[in-house]
Amino acid sequence: xxxxxxxxxxxxxxxxxxxxxxxxxxxxxxxxxxxxxxxxxxxxxxxxxxxxxxxxxxxxxxxxxxxxxxxxxxxxxxxxxxxxxxxxxxxxxxxxxxxxxxxxxxxxxxxxxxxxxxxxxxxxxxxxxxxxxxxxxxxxxxxxxxxxxxxxxxxxxxxxxxxxxxxxxxxxxxxxxxxxxxxxxxxxxxxxxxxxxxxxxxxxxxxxxxxxxxxxxxxxxxxxxxxxxxxxxxxxxxxxxxxxxxxxxx
Length: 250
What we know:
Blueprint: E1 2-4, H1 8-16, H2 26-34, E2 37-41, E3 46-48, E4 56-62, E5 65-70, E6 76-82, E7 87-88, H3 90-95, E8 102-105, E9 109-115, H4 116-123, H5 127-151, H6 156-170, E10 172-175, E11 178-181, H7 187-194, H8 198-210, E12 214-217, E13 220-223, H9 225-232, H10 235-249
Antiparallel strand pairs: 1-2, 2-9, 3-8, 4-7, 4-9, 5-6, 5-8, 10-11, 11-13, 12-13
Helix pairs in contact: 1-2, 5-10, 7-8
């Protein structure tokens, strides 16, 4: 980890798109950035270790990080990926407890670090800001429960369809004839996320390409209309939707 420079206006644009800061004025965002620091991390460098005292929150400005649970023998169980514009570490600042997950750079990245003092000044005295925090936490709850359900599915192709569909909603950019997932998702990262092998992911994605359900735009997946038609007619789509709705009503 080294302290790094990052374009101020680009950083402001990225932070403004984070739901937590959606209601901030230009002046508030500039003040936040002036009081915070940007750091560069190399691939596989630990950004935040499980059990550490919560002293800051993080916003990904460039690159991708993975949220993992480390087993007793040092193996990683991938719980989530965070991309440009995603934040983490904020829950510990709210409840004063250490985080239960470790966050590692999945590729070279730049991350904005916001101290607890700055976080408290921004959020704990502003009702609208607190509502944004609640909205973000609810979104993470939905994602965690969704992938809990996906991992329990026995069919590998169904796991991959559900995963791509989810990322099309959270990271998707609509194109003239489909949706581009605006993040680099490797076959290995998908495999890690839903607990299957990389070879299985490659086989299923090749099948989807041959059926013209997906295509690649550079290193990004583009989901075509047939992908959504097939998925939304499936029993899996209806089951996941019902399961998620029922869980969040409890």
